Amino acid sequence: MNLRQLQYFVTVAEELHFGRAADRLHMSQPPLSQQIISLEESLGVPLFARTKRSVQLTAVGEQWLPEVRQVLAAAAELPHKARRLSRGEIGTLSLAFVSTADYGALPGLLQHYRAQHPDVQVTLREATSDVQIDALLNQEIDIGIVIPPRGMAFPKSLRYLPLRKERLVVALPQAWVRSRKHRPAHGQIDFRTLLDEPLIVFPRQSAPAFHDLIADYYTAHQATPRIGQEAIQMQTIISLVSVGMGIALVPESLQNLQRTGVVYAQLSGPAPEVETGLLWRKDEDSAALLGLIAAAKAWKR
After folding, report:
1. Which string of b and e fits 236-248 if b means at least 16 CB within 10 Å?
2. Calpha distance 289→220 (Å, rounded)
């Protein structure tokens, strides 16, 4: 059975006459009849009931006809679909991201990419950087937004593209501000006044680069962070701040996450910066993925 035989079947089914069907197909009747017989033999069932005066579809032929039409329509689309796939206009893409990118790099990048590739199906997954690296190596995701480790020590099979750097700001319980315990002046606060407060932070084993960035900031102030709580999602960290469990140092884009009970303040003086970037397999040649990388390069400019 082949596509040509399926087209012959549909044409005969529409005409219910081998002569007219042969004319439509620009062929003689005997080869057409032989092709239909060959198709029926390969299926093991008759598709037409033939008499000297008429040709009718059998019950099997009637039920099979709509499905064959769908197959032929899909086959006709295959060349066009292949060209669109090669251009990255359609396809699938699995993208993981750290929660710090949820209100920063991720929305802007996706908006830019979707404007150019609206028909690519993007599947999103939130994961820490270490989980993303394992997922990339195991081919469970196509690309990730990560926080790079110190020294950019990624596996050699992966490639990294910096996206953006953000200053850290401090998230404070609003109750502390109202009680004048810690009140920002002109939207800024001296971090030295917060050194003894409990800190809500990512556990180091889940986000070593981000954790160490904050620890180094404390060290620069000749202090050691007093860890109050640990959480692996930025939204959870902000929720814990809102109920007065402590303070948090977060990327400035997280100020877009407005939560009752939380006040954000800039750090007076030099503030640490966190970098996020794209990470993918070097040998990956998916057009949809390459399109995202190109969009990222254009977006970050």
Report:
1. ebbbbbbeebbbb
2. 40
Please give the single-letter amino acid code of residue 29. Q
Q: How far is CA 298 from CA 90, 115, 288, in A?
A: 20, 13, 15
Give per-10-residue mean pLDDT for the chain (301 aa): 94 94 95 95 95 92 96 89 77 93 90 91 94 96 93 89 95 85 75 94 91 95 96 93 96 91 93 95 91 92 67
Question: Do 80 and 54 share a structural domain?
Answer: yes
Output the pLDDT for position 301.
Answer: 67
Do 223 and 259 lie in one domain? The reply is: yes
- In 3D, which of 146, 165, 119 has the Cα closest to residue 272? 165
Closest CA to 133 of 122, 119, 144: 144
The domain that holds 56 is classified in CATH as: 1.10.10.10
Q: Torsion over CA of 97, 103, 104 and 106, rounded to 10 degrees?
A: 40
288 and 148 in a common domain: yes
Burial class of residue 249 (count of CB atoms within 10 Å of its CB; 0-12, 13-18, 19+): buried
**188-220 burial by CB neighbour count: b if 16+ within 10 A, else e?**
ebebeebeebbbbbbeeebbbbbbebbbebbee
Q: Which residues span the domain enclosing 254?
A: 166-273
Q: Tell which residue, 157, 158, 127, has the closest CA to residue 145.
A: 127
Residue 233 sits in a domain whose CATH number is 3.40.190.10
181 and 259, same domain (yes or no) = yes
- pLDDT given at position 53: 87
Give the predicted TM-score (pTM) of the model. Answer: 0.72
| Rounded Cα gap, residues 247 and 231, in angstroms | 13
Structural domains counted in the chain: 3
In one-letter notation, the amino acid at residue 298 is: A
Give the ranges where the chain is alpha helix by DSSP (H): 3-15, 18-24, 29-43, 59-86, 105-116, 129-137, 174-178, 208-220, 234-242, 287-300
